[in-house]
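Q: What changes when 2-acetamido-2-deoxy-beta-D-glucopyranose is included in the input?
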Amino acid sequence: MRENKDEVVITSMQENRGSGHSRHSKEIWSPIIKSLPRSMAVLLFPVVVIIGALAYTSRIDPHAIWSGVSSRKSAISSKVGERRPFIGSTGKGREIPVNCSGYKHTGTCPMGMGMGEERRGGTSTCPDYFRWIDEDLRPWIGTGITEEMVERGRETANFKLVIVKGKAYLETYEKGFQTRDVFTLWGILQLLRRYPGKVPDLEIMFDCVDWPVLSSDRYNPHNPPPPLFRYCGNDHTLDIVFPDWSFWGWAEVNIKPWEILLGELKEGTKKIPWLKREPYAYWKGNPAVAETRQDLMKCNVSEKQDWNARLYAQDWGREAQEGYKKSDLASQCTHRYKVYIEGSAWSVSQKYILACDSTTLIVNPHYYDFFTRGLIPMHHYWPIKEDDKCRSIKFAVDWGNSHKERAQEIGKSASNFIQEELKMDYVYDYMFHLLSSYAKLFRYKPSISANATELCVESMVCGAEGFEKKFMMESLVKGPAITSPCTMPAPFDPPSLYAHLQRKQSSIQQVESWEKSYWENQNITS
Ligand SMILES: *[C@@H]1O[C@H](CO)[C@@H](O)[C@H](O)[C@H]1NC(C)=O
Ligand SMILES: *[C@@H]1O[C@H](CO)[C@@H](O)[C@H](O)[C@H]1NC(C)=O
Ligand SMILES: *[C@@H]1O[C@H](CO)[C@@H](O)[C@H](O)[C@H]1NC(C)=O
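A: The predicted holo structure follows.
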């Protein structure tokens, strides 16, 4: 595997395993966005309705203890004050202990976590982007999911995770890049702690490599793809998207767990108000990972030209030596405009950029992750043309500096979206609803294979060291949530999906037409 470094981020480059992009015009599973009418038929299949509010039983363990991690609490609270960064919306609930001395003694995972608490009713509706869960699972609506389908995913999967009776069992096929597999598994274990006994039995094949591989033209409703989980997708593939590792931390580049970082970013945005920020478009990252980024570098300010862009290359080697002082994300909210551009695929940096209160300029993206399909152009961000970046950025910044109210609003909507709709509670609820809906499609009973080993918080954290251990402890879910998961919004029906995509498309076209007349006028006046 070849790996390259990304901006705040390292994104892996890898050989594109097994996904030929041949385009045949047989009965294909066409990407919904590119050819909606053809997908209409598929969309009319019955839809799995997810019951968000489940009946929960109560069993509070008064002897629950919290061992081995007592130092963690004070270490964190000194940083983020009195916030309780671990289980978001929980009040005082039962805590599930982490018993490393017990684990080291017996070498086995603890017996179980009991059941969840009594839930309070009247929960909120999940953010709109949860509607994509149904779209991602649509390929299996007619057929269900069989063991044969799951096993086919093994070809590229890094691991298979089996959940039976609320416990996790892992079979590793190929170690993932850095600790992305480790923190993904850690995240799923936290979900099991948050909703003990509520995540149904299932098996997932997970591919930790950047690029989606299940090309939609190879499958159709009678021949569905293997269900394969990964961090991102695009309009030509059928991989199922799942939150990436960075929500629990990225040990290699010192990116903290999202819960903590989100608080720091909120503070960071307050330092310089939008109007006082540099009136330019800022980007910092590694241009080497993608041609489109090298192309972006041509827009940097020089003695001869100023496209309103201030672009910087990230030097990860030096950053690591100097203790990541210059890559502190919360202190990168210094410009009115921030550029987001993909690396080798989606980039985990998008949430950090959108959180800044700056107006985000998004260079037309090709990949989505689980939440980015909820972003609306002109509301959350300003679209930038991919094939004419410099002029597009120049116009965006000029427009914003002469429509300051509107430009600030776009920045504010994005950071509100990130702070409210992408808080950790919703990341867990997304995982919960996705896995629950997925499990409902199962046509077989998942079982623990001979090669699988039990995975528990103790087996992961007790032997960990350094940033890995630190981030695990900081992102540990202390115990069951005392509120129910959010309630799923109504799924898209063909008209509402069509309207949604139309709205996005017409906003982008609007910007393009303004941009066109802006440059036509420049040519006349110059
Ligand atoms: C940890 O586990 C060991 C062995 O199972 C047990 O004897 C001990 O009481 C446990 N410690 C706590 C604090 O629960
Ligand atoms: C862009 O220009 C600025 C100002 O001249 C410079 O400091 C920076 O290094 C340039 N960025 C790149 C990636 O060359
Ligand atoms: C378990 O692993 C062994 C050795 O890698 C392999 O030969 C065997 O097929 C595996 N069994 C299953 C059920 O996957």
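Observations recorded in class: Residues 494-525 form the longest helix (32 residues).
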